[in-house]
Structure formats: structure tokens, C-alpha cells
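Components:
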Amino acid sequence: MSSRFPRLSRPSPFRPFLRRFTDERARDLADTISLYNSVRAAHLATKWSRSDAINDLSDHIAAAVMERVEPPTYQPLGEAIDTCQRELLKLETSIFSPPTVDFAKPLSLKEHIDP
Amino acid sequence: MQLKLKRSQRSGGMMGGKVFFVLDARADLATDEQNLVKKYNLGKLIVYDSEARKKHTEAAAQHFDSAGNTPIRGSTGGTVARSLWSNAQGLARMAAASLTLRVTIDSLTSGEHIECKDMNELLGAESAIIESCRNVKAYLDAALTFDGREEVVEF
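Structure:
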């Protein structure tokens, strides 16, 4: 038996044996779909996914504003401001609607990361 | 060409006390780039060879060299046996090398999952992958300029 110290070498990068037989593309897509489902489920569990979320928030904002300033006495103007606010809130799709991804189409790498 | 790199880590080893750094790399080629890679046969282009692979390949070459240096004339049974033993060692090293990591353009487009205990080694692999993709893109861009165009260079 040799009395010499074994040569210490730096660990080398490797591919685990079972990953040689893995379809990395399919695995990647499955990971993305699972992440998408968990994000969607988390969004659906919040009040922001409710159908009346925009109306609730709009009323809340209107109430908060009216605490500080007088509402307009001319009613059509008040209604116009209210409608404008609701339409603006509807544009915030990232808050009020879950992301929609069509997984039937092939996704680009960018879409995989930032759907 | 798009390259997706994902860094992560996991615990491993007998007691789970070791940390493995993980890199998932996947390249997506546009259809015309895929055609060009096929046309210029760049799929087998080596992007990265692990240190272990280099070591095994070098050792295999040394064993085959020493086997090849055995003179045919006047060789005794001992030298023939030594030559055969060197060849066997060379083959074993080649087999070991084939089990180690080699990243090519083809394997990168299919997706690579690489792990290493040493973060610096993995970072080296990552930069080699990025550099190679850049080189392939530059190669394809340069290859497209060989379309019969004429140019006058003045000095």
C-alpha cells in the first residue's frame, strides 16, 4: 500500500446519472406549469381575484378621498370621476386578473422566465 | 439565439451535509439558426469539457501512447502483456471519460443539468457556455456574409 498522500483535486462538474435520460425541455415546461398553477392558486385565494374587487377598491378610494376633500356638487362630474377611476383600475390587470398563458403553444425562453 | 441559465443549489451527500451548486442551461435557436447549425455541422462543437473528462482523456492518450511505443520486433511476452495492459487501461479511461461531463451545442439545445460541489468550477462552466453561445452566434453571423459580396479594402 502506498504511503503517499493521494493527490487532492478540485471537484469536477458532473451531470447526475439519471438526468442523462431526462427530457430537460419537458421537465422545464412542467416546472413552469407547476409554478404558474401555484401563482394562479395564490392569486385566486386573495380578495383581488374577486369579481367585485375593482368596485370595492374604487369605493374605498372614493371614501378615503372624500374624507379629505369635498365631493363635487355637480353630480355628472362626480359620476364621470368615478367611472374614470373604475376604468383606470380595470387596466391594472396584473393586480385584478391572474396571468393567462397558453401552454398549448410552445413558449420562448423569455416567456418561461417571465410569463 | 437565447440562452436560459438557472442557478440553484441542493443538499446532498451521505448525511445531507454537502451543498451542490446546480446550473441548468438551455439554448433556444431560431429556425434559421437551427438550419445553419445543421448546415455548418456545429452541433457537435464542444462547449465545455469538465476537468475530470480532460484528465481521463489525457490519461487514455498516455496509455495508448505507451502501448503504441512497444516495439513489434523482438518483443517478449512481457512487453506484449504490458502493451495489452496499457491498451486496457486506455480503454478504461476512455469509458470513464465518456461518463463525465461534455457540453456541446446539441446537448445545450436539449438542455443541460450540471452539478458541482465547487462553485468556482461551476461558474467556469457557466462562463464557458455563455462564451461559446456568443462564439456560435458570431460564427453564424460571419458565415452569412459569405454570400458572394464584394468589398474593397483601402490601405
